[in-house]
UniProtKB/TrEMBL annotation:
Pathway: Cofactor biosynthesis; adenosylcobalamin biosynthesis; adenosylcobalamin from cob(II)yrinate a,c-diamide: step 2/7. Keywords: ATP-binding, Cobalamin biosynthesis, Cytoplasm, Nucleotide-binding, Porphyrin biosynthesis, Transferase. Its EC number is 2.5.1.17. This is Corrinoid adenosyltransferase. Required for both de novo synthesis of the corrin ring for the assimilation of exogenous corrinoids. Participates in the adenosylation of a variety of incomplete and complete corrinoids. NCBIfam families: cobA (TIGR00708), PRK05986.1 (NF004637). The keyword Transferase applies. It catalyses: 2 cob(II)yrinate a,c diamide + reduced [electron-transfer flavoprotein] + 2 ATP = 2 adenosylcob(III)yrinate a,c-diamide + 2 triphosphate + oxidized [electron-transfer flavoprotein] + 3 H(+); 2 cob(II)alamin + reduced [electron-transfer flavoprotein] + 2 ATP = 2 adenosylcob(III)alamin + 2 triphosphate + oxidized [electron-transfer flavoprotein] + 3 H(+). It comes from Alkalimonas amylolytica. Its main location: cytoplasm. The keyword Ribosomal protein does not apply. GO terms for biological process: cobalamin biosynthetic process; porphyrin-containing compound biosynthetic process. It is found in: Cytoplasm.
Length: 200
């Protein structure tokens, strides 16, 4: 098999691929506010969510961030994005195994959720990140029907990103895009602590 023949076959395969991609692009003509869910047991769900926020802000869109679960520790994404006008609402109670106070955690979740609902009703906001929202549903800190209704009734062009493990089936069914991020290996399992600038 000559090099010229290999090059020609490669070109033919790539042309066929290009035609398939072009056809798929041509069929995708609708615009709407998307609901993206980033779930699974792997690392990177919040990181991916913040990447989407950063992308939106980089294009001049207005974004807002709501962080459930997270404590009051330093957050590199918050340090950066607040400088670009992104409002943050943070539950700031930390992990449930640290607080060990269900009533206080539920009250904090409800308070933060009310602010999240205001973002979800604001036509001026193009993208809302609901970081770690899935835990609030699996712990029953928030009412599932209320959460789904608020997301469903948001402004037509507003995008929403939800992160967290064990996403409820009804939220998965409602989503436009779902990514299930799984663990292959994790440095923490080898005794390496979380690294500033990479993990937080």
């Amino acid at each position: 098999m000559t090099e010229d023949y290999k090059a020609k076959r490669h070109q033919q395969r790539q042309q066929q691929l290009k035609e398939q991609v072009d056809q798929a692009v041509a069929k995708a003509t609708d615009d709407k506010g998307l609901l993206l869910v980033l779930t699974g047991n792997g690392k990177g769900k919040s990181t991916a969510g913040f990447g989407t926020v950063t992308r939106a802000v980089g294009h001049g869109y207005k974004a807002a961030v709501v962080q459930f679960i997270k404590g009051d520790w330093a957050c590199g994404e918050r340090n950066l994005l607040q400088q670009h006008g992104v409002p943050f609402v943070v539950m700031a109670t930390g992990f449930t195994w640290d607080t060990q106070d269900k009533a206080a955690d539920m009250a904090a979740a409800q308070s933060v959720w009310q602010q999240a609902k205001a973002f979800l009703a604001d036509e001026r906001i193009d993208l809302v990140l609901l970081d770690e929202l899935t835990y609030m549903l699996s712990y029953h800190y928030l009412d599932l029907d209320d959460v789904l209704a608020s997301i469903r009734q948001r402004p037509a062009g507003q995008h929403v990103v939800v992160t967290g493990r064990n996403c409820h089936r009804r939220l998965l069914d409602m989503a436009d895009t779902v990514s299930d991020i799984q663990v292959v290996k994790h440095a923490f399992d080898a005794g390496i602590r979380a690294q500033q600038g990479v993990d937080w």
